[in-house]
Amino acid sequence: MVHRRDTRERLVHAAADLFWARGYEAASLADIAREASVPVGNVFYHFRAKSDLGRAVAGLFVAEAAAALAGIERRHGEPRARIGAFVDLLAESTASRVARGCPIARAAREFPREAGEAGAAAVFALMGAWLEAQLAGAGAADPPAVARSALARWQGAIVLASALGDATVLTGEIEALRRDLARA
């Protein structure tokens, strides 16, 4: 049983990486199998169709985001510290976001139907609700608007930085976001 789970996890992680690098349509099941070091026939043992793999990738993104936010809550007791740690989390991915864009945004655009309700867009909803709760706990005015604006600013900065190939665009916006959230 452990071997099957390991194979399935390798397939999901390989698919996530290839969907991010090449796009959902361009990443073939054979490519995913090769990337996971799994015979292509094994893909169908774990996933009946590519859309099932898309749902699994979306689920992975949601689970990873939930775990990251829960980790922030465990390590930081008060909302302002949690908000700072959240911005640190965004900053940690700067290099990969400049090089390849945002995997969550790409997944939300390219395979939303395949992912269903637990799709990659659910990551943004999860992050927004979490940030909104932290902002409310910190006494911010209009937490829903501030949280939505923060995520939109981050995503916009990723698009611009990636298009220009300039990490300073994203790092500058993240630092401005840090200051703005601290004042909210």
Task: Compile the SSE list and pairings.
Blueprint: H1 2-22, H2 29-36, H3 40-46, H4 50-75, H5 79-92, H6 94-100, H7 103-110, H8 112-115, H9 121-137, H10 143-164, H11 167-183
Helix pairs in contact: 1-2, 1-4, 1-7, 2-3, 4-5, 4-9, 5-9, 5-11, 6-10, 9-10, 10-11
Describe this structure in words.
This protein has 184 residues and is mainly α. The protein folds into 2 domains: 1-48, Homeodomain-like (Arc Repressor Mutant, subunit A), CATH 1.10.10; 55-183, Tetracycline Repressor, domain 2. It is built from 11 helices and no strands. It has helices at 2-22, 29-36, 40-46, 50-75, 79-92, 94-100, 103-110, 112-115, 121-137, 143-164, 167-183. The longest helix is centred in the middle third of the chain and has 26 residues, at 50-75. 33% of the residues are buried.
Cα(first) to Cα(last) distance is 49 Å
Q: Output the helix-strand order.
A: HHHHHHHHHHH
CATH architecture of the largest domain: Orthogonal Bundle
Low-pLDDT residue intervals, each spanning 5 or more residues: none
Helix content: over 70%
Supply Rg: 18 Å
Nutshell version of this structure?
This protein has 184 residues and is an all-alpha fold. The protein folds into two domains: 1-48, Arc Repressor Mutant, subunit A (Orthogonal Bundle); 55-183, Tetracycline Repressor, domain 2 (Orthogonal Bundle). It contains eleven helices and no strands.
